[in-house]
Amino acid sequence: MTDAAQTDLVKINVADGVMEIVWNRPDKKNALSNVMYRAATAALARAMEDKSIRVVLLTSEGDSFTSGNDLADFAAASAGGETPAAGGFIEAIAQFPKPLVAAVTGLAVGVGTTMLFHCDLVFVANEAKLTTPFVNLGLVPEAASSMLIPARIGYTRAFAMFALGDGVTGAQAAQLGVANIALPAGEVIDAAREAARKLAQRPPGAVMATKKLMRDSETILAQLRTEGKVFGERLKTAEAMEAFMAFQQKRTPDFSKF
Ligand code: COA
After folding, report:
1. Whose CA is nearest to atom 14 of ligand 1?
2. 29 touches ligand 1 (CB under 6 Å)
3. What one-character-per-residue DSSP string does 35-70 give?
4. Nearest CA to 196 among 126, 128, 125, 120?
5. pLDDT tier, 185 (very low <50, low <70, confident <90, very high otherwise)
6. Any atom of ligand 1 within 6 Å of the Cβ of 107
7. How far is the CA of 257 from the centre of ligand 1 (A)?
8. Given pLDDT bands bounded at 50, 70 and 90, which one contains residue 5?
9. Separation of CA 172 and ligand 1 centre (Å)
10. Whether residue 72 has its Cβ less than 6 Å from ligand 1
11. Model confidence over 235-246: pLDDT tens digits?
12. Is 128 close to ligand 1, i.e. is its CB under 6 Å away?
């Protein structure tokens, strides 16, 4: 990893063939800022190159997995500032050839949930809450989630998640096949680590070939790029600006004028 991509807000640990990428911004519910996406993307590039790293585990410090993209970064992009670095991270996980495991101990908002659909094993806390409230923010789904979520849980449930902001608990996520298993929060990371270590001991060529056969990455990439275009346009709309402003001002957004 280059120095420029290092930040204390993302911890990278490597042991037993497993790289852990740990969101470490608990005071902001692990909201993902541009610097965090860049650090995680650089770590994934390193994990891809390094033959000794067989598996990547995504997890977090604190009570939330992540509250999604940093809304201050979205507001800045909306006002013509830096393009969110989420796109690079999403493309990296969508094309990552080695297994990705997620340990979700709490809240997973927006990209916190959509990234799980790029993971190969997902462990969640019973009480975790998975939400994708893109429409509430004047936005649209990303990370190919407009395709991957309805494919996994059905169209109407997915639409309610996107457009009403309805969430699913960890227990429901396991029932719906979004997660392998829901566990008491204190057991999630150990279970995910054990599975990651087991995967790291499997023949890596067979593991990667299996993943490749199971994922239609060309279609996924095409979808996430189409979404990315619409998302970028939506970020600059008055609807989105109203949503970001309302969050900053700790008030309910008012969409009645649109
Ligand atoms: N971006 C930037 N800051 C965020 C954030 C985000 N996505 N999510 C939480 N935070 C910050 C809050 O502003 C607050 O900061 P402060 O202490 O300086 O005021 C801190 O994290 C704690 O959040 P708070 O809202 O007080 O916690 P909560 O438990 O009441 O609610 C959430 C947690 C995640 C439900 C709520 O913060 C939220 O809805 N966040 C926005 C989620 C979102 O829309 N993400 C983008 C999806 S595309």
Report:
1. 28
2. yes
3. HHHHHHHHHHHHHHH-TT--EEEEEESSSEEE--B-
4. 120
5. very high
6. yes
7. 25
8. confident
9. 23
10. yes
11. 999 999 999 999
12. no
- Alpha carbon distance 249, 257 (integer Å): 18
Ligand 1 center to residue 253 CA distance, Å? 15
Q: Is the CB of 234 under 6 A from ligand 1?
A: no
φ, ψ at 76 (rounded to 5°): -65, -45
- All domains in the chain, ordered by first residue: 3-186+195-248 (3.90.226.10)
Of the candidates 70, 78, 122, 109, the one whose C-alpha atom is nearest the C-alpha of residue 235 is 78
Cβ of 75 below 6 Å from ligand 1: no
Q: How many CB atoms lie within 10 A of CB 180?
A: 19
The protein residue with its alpha carbon nearest to ligand 1, atom 48, reads: 110
For the stretch 23-61, pLDDT in tens is 999 999 999 999 999 999 999 999 999 999 999 999 999
Question: For residue 107, is pLDDT > 90?
Answer: yes
Residues 68/25, Cβ–Cβ less than 8 Å: no
Give CA–CA dist 197/191, Å, rounded.
10
Half-sphere exposure at residue 88, Cβ-oriented, CA atoms within 13 angstroms: 18
pLDDT reading at 15 higher than 80: yes
- Work out the pLDDT band at 6, boundaries 50, 70, 90: confident
CA of 46 to the centre of ligand 1 (A): 30
